[in-house]
Design brief:
mainly beta, 5 strands, two-stranded antiparallel ribbon, 2 helices, single chain, 3-stranded antiparallel beta sheet
Length: 128
Amino acid sequence: MSSKDVFFNSSVNFNQLITFGNIKYCQIPVKTRLSFNIVLIFKEGSKLTIGCVSINLFNEKGIFNSGVRDLNVWPFYEIDERLGCMKEYDGLKREILNDPALTRKIHLLFTKLILVFESFICPMMYSS
């Protein structure tokens, strides 16, 4: 998939459909993951990486990640293909997580990338 230019806004909506061409779900390897780098590009050609995020298409139980997924973005990192462990940013201190007032507002503390996967009536399991 190629990049998409958007103008600066406090809430950017790419509304981009990602397809796998003629590949069927049963042909996708269980370890397949989607990775995104969020890059700010200036007119003079310089670039600044804002963050990155990655998600596996199937979870550890082999169930397809369907529905809406909001992913916390790793600030100022780029995806490294060699690191299969780089998933979602969860960099809060334990004291913050134990504070009930902040727990209700935790979604405000992260930059998020929201993905909407195809939904099915029953959970779709990976099958070889």
